[in-house]
Design a protein that fits this description.
The structure is a homodimer of 199-residue chains. Chain A has 199 residues and is of the alpha/beta class. Helix content of chain A is 42%, strand content 13%. Chain A has two domains: 4-51, Helicase, Ruva Protein, domain 3 (Orthogonal Bundle); 54-172, Dna Topoisomerase Vi A Subunit, Chain: A, domain 2, CATH 3.40.1360. The termini of chain A are far apart. Chains A, B: Residues 80-178 form the Toprim domain.
Chain lengths: 199, 199
């Protein structure tokens, strides 16, 4: 009973992360009941996204004239400290912590089997080339800053192998109890790490 | 660190039903990483929605040349049986049941205080005017087909008052145990209704 255009919009919305087919239909119907300025604004915002480019160094999307993002073109940033993150949102969270002053490489979503995609291989290759301009062709430190889940461990191991010799230190994010955690309800793996990394 | 255009798109997405601010950011970032054809398709689908109109009789959105939707212009539909529903998705669910052959009036989201909005008053008024073309200026039956929640009961009572005399029968959807329900875990209200409406 719904017009094709609502079904088509719903089908396209259901390709977006976290939107299921039922919610997509609800959203498409909701939009069909809005005034045309609402729809124009949303479509306009979408089109503006097309004008963004990814940073040539870290792959964060940006609207700068130059090819590099604000972080990569900031002279106050440590250039020989690199954090490799999976997602742009991971980068944002680390920035928000204000505990990091180096630069980044965004890999994009990792595959569950731990293999790197050709695009991810390309990004790593480009990072390695960039590192050759540093003293001793080495970074001071590369932090493999992946969320500690089972499948990212394989990717992290692969990354460490690929980057061996390209940095004085290759590290991973510290493991242990998160702030506010209850020991009683913490899993064995977390407790094991919290004991190993006690300080 | 995110470009303004991503933040703006996220802000607009978070106005859509069921999308929170964090998910909106995730979706906007996701879109920023897609090829431009993906963005164009989505924006195009949105713009097509602007071409829809709501049915002049029941307010279901449609793409017909005429002012009425497929249901309202279907001669096989009973014209003197009207179901008043809150949401377009309610109409779709009733259609899917294939247990209803009458027509509809879509009210749009009801307010929690049970009051009808001016737009809803207008739709009811228009229905009443349409009913004057029927024999005795009356429908055979009007079904107040609202989901049985606390706040819709007030709206249903108000609708019944407004429509008194405009139909031979004014009914509501049957109440009782849903298929697959477990008596042990059913609430008192449902059980009371299932006893009252036993058959």
């Amino acid at each position: 009973m719904l017009p094709e255009s609502i079904k088509q919009l719903a089908a396209r919305l259901s390709n977006l992360p976290g939107i299921g087919p039922r919610q997509a239909i609800r959203i498409a119907i909701y939009i069909s009941q809005k005034e045309s300025s609402f729809i124009d604004d949303l479509a306009g915002s979408l089109q503006e996204i097309s004008n963004l480019k990814n940073c040539s160094d870290c792959f964060l999307p940006h609207a700068n004239q130059s090819s590099r993002c604000r972080i990569c073109s900031d002279p106050k940033r440590t250039t020989d400290l690199i954090a490799i993150v999976e997602k742009i949102t991971d980068l944002l969270s680390i920035e928000q912590s204000q505990a990091y002053s180096g630069r980044y490489l965004v890999l994009g979503d990792l595959k569950k089997d731990g293999e790197l995609t050709p695009e991810q291989e390309k990004r790593i290759g480009q990072l390695i080339t960039q590192l050759t301009s540093l003293p001793n062709s080495q970074a001071e430190e590369i932090i493999i800053a992946l969320s500690p889940t089972n499948h990212t461990q394989i990717s992290a191991d692969k990354l460490e192998q690929r980057l061996r010799g390209k940095a004085k230190k290759i590290t991973r994010l510290g493991r242990g109890l998160p702030t506010g955690a209850d020991i009683e309800f913490s899993d064995d793996e977390t407790l094991k790490n919290s004991l190993k990394n006690r300080s």
